[in-house]
Design goal:
Elements: H1 5-21, E1 25-26, H2 27-34, H3 38-49, E2 54-60, E3 68-74, H4 76-85, H5 89-108, H6 114-124, H7 131-149, H8 151-163, H9 167-183, H10 188-207, H11 210-224
Antiparallel strand pairs: 1-3, 2-3
Helix pairs in contact: 2-3, 5-7, 6-7, 7-9, 7-10, 7-11, 8-9, 9-10, 9-11
Length: 225
């Protein structure tokens, strides 16, 4: 049975959380990571379970003596599904090359004005070919902007990212939050173009594998450290 894009998103997030924690995931934790109600997450997981991609079990709730809670874990079928979608060796090598270019860009743009920084983003973005490179470039430019603004804004956004569960959710949260700040500081014409870039970014993030999400999240965490 072919999973819908929405169900794949839920399953991808569950697989990523399970691989990081090595424990079955409560549906409410998944709901927080994806940004939906706990009941929506529960219904979605029950539907995915029928396709053989997750298993359901019960464990004692540590916060409520004697009470059990429903948890879910991905099956081997789910693991194999996303293993097929992970980037192959050539993609990793190309990403490492892109990383070097991103770090050079971050260093070279430190003294650029915000207006020129945004213009560079709009001028150069058509040259970014793969979804991974496109998303990395957007993140790199916004990291430069955040470093320029500094102060409370940088600290606040870093705290938000650190408290957000799930690679894809934190990447969406980071770009949405920073881009919202950028749009307030530039002209209307640039704001409209940036809004279109944000829309493209959201679509491309959704097409990436969990492993590619991790590559991008590691890049952001290292840059903000």
């Amino acid at each position: 049975m072919v999973l819908s894009k929405r169900r794949l998103q839920f399953l991808d997030e569950l697989v990523g959380m399970y691989q990081r924690q090595r424990l079955p995931i409560h549906y409410e934790a998944l709901a927080n990571a994806v940004g939906v109600s706990k009941w929506t997450a529960y219904d979605m997981l029950k539907a995915i379970e029928k396709s053989g991609y997750v298993t359901r079990s019960y464990e004692v709730n540590p916060n409520e003596t004697g009470r059990s809670q429903v948890v879910f874990a991905p099956t081997q079928k789910a693991t194999e599904l996303f293993e097929q979608q992970r980037p192959h060796e050539g993609t990793i090598e190309k990403w490492e090359e892109s990383m070097k270019a991103l770090w050079e860009m971050i260093h070279s743009l430190k003294h650029t004005s915000i207006q020129d920084l945004m213009k560079k983003m709009l001028d150069d973005i058509p040259q970014r070919q793969s979804s991974l490179e496109f998303c990395g470039y957007i993140l790199g430019i916004l990291i430069v902007y955040l470093k320029k603004v500094g102060g409370r804004t940088e600290v606040a956004i870093r705290r938000v990212i650190n408290k957000t569960a799930g690679y894809s959710t934190s990447l969406l949260m980071f770009v949405g939050t920073v881009m919202g700040t950028v749009i307030q500081s530039v002209g209307e014409e640039i704001s409209n173009e940036l809004a279109e870039l944000l829309s493209s970014y959201v679509k491309m993030i959704g097409s990436l594998s969990n492993e590619e999400h991790k590559l991008l999240a590691d890049f952001v965490n290292e840059a903000l450290a």
